[in-house]
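I am going through a labmate's work and have reached the protein record below. What it holds is a sequence and that sequence's fold in token form. Please read both lines and tell me whether the tokens look consistent with the sequence. Do not assume that whoever made the record got everything right. Thanks in advance; the entry in question is below.
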Amino acid sequence: MDRRSQSLIAMSGIIFIYTFATSIMQYNLSIFTGAMAQSYTLFGIIMGLPWLFSLLTDIPVGALADRFGYKKTVALGLFGLSFSGFLLYGVSNFIQLFWVLVVFGVFEGLLTVAGLALVILSSPSGKENQFVGGYTTASSLGYVVGPFVGGLAVAWFGNGIPFLMFGVICLFAAFVAIILLKDGRGAQQSFFSALADVWKKDRVYISEVKEFFSVGRESLLVGCFMLLTGMWSEFIWAMEPLFINQAGASYAVGGIVLSFFVAPFALFGYAIGRWIDRTQKRFFSIIFGLVCAGFGILFFSFATTPFWFCFFAALASVGFAFFYVSINGIFDSLSDHHRRGHMTGVWQAAEDIGFVLGPIAGGIIADFIGMRGAFFVFGALFLMLTLPVIFVRRNIQFYEKKAA
């Protein structure tokens, strides 16, 4: 097995372990925070809080990983996430929750930015979508299994044990990273030396953003797409457990429904990536994804039984798979001649902006027109966004021709 394939398999296994753990934690966090919050808006702010601090670290972490090494940055992120899980177990008020989520957000950025950069570095030219698709499939498999386990854990053990589970699993993943990951780089700096150079030489934030947007209009387009995926993802993860519980279903059923929001993406993400690599139909994939996801979420807002909740969640997930894998492949090709960590940091920051805005917007809408209304509005938003995508059709198709 060559080094590239070994790195992909190892990083895919690690991201599976992490997403399994974090989906247990996030499902529990939604229930835990919902019980304390006095309004949906406050709930949305708390649920978006970790990603605000992840956003602040994503850009410098990209440059840090370039200097310090991707493997060590991934392991450091997992150790910090494990620590945040143990801290969450002892949280009893909003002030404590705030500071623990700060810790979570900072270290989450270390893992996700360095992990994706390592996968992109390992991707051979012409097979970017396959490698990214394989990585996102492994990530999604964790998100498929985790919510169901999280729902059962909340139902059986209450709010504390799922946080401990998260801490223990992340600790295990950190040791897996140390043992199995291959960095793919030569000389590396010490942590504090790399941190100093990121601040002094890389001109943190400025150089990364400048390099990302030096690609041209495509970088702005892809950045906006990534913001949209972040809004979609965190809105679902924050609001779905409360919505299903309001509909009268158990926590276990809520976990199953949440799994259906991810299962088709996990099952078909790699195959979709290969199909897009072969056909270069990126514009079609983006439009199809928006329409499919939009109708799925819109009809989900009217569902009343577990079957229809699962059906429309799966429909939305199919659309999201086409949309997400397509834009990931575009970004992968865009960053071929740029520093991976710098590019990935800005890319991940765009997603984290969406992670912050999604639950906050959902909470505000839910306070005005209810939880079902919030899902309806998000579904309608996806459908309406097909119009500006059609408007920039030439940009996407020009890029298809260039990549073919």
Summary: Residues 3-403 form a domain with the Growth Hormone; Chain: A; fold (CATH 1.20.1250.20). The two ends are 28 Å apart (CA to CA).
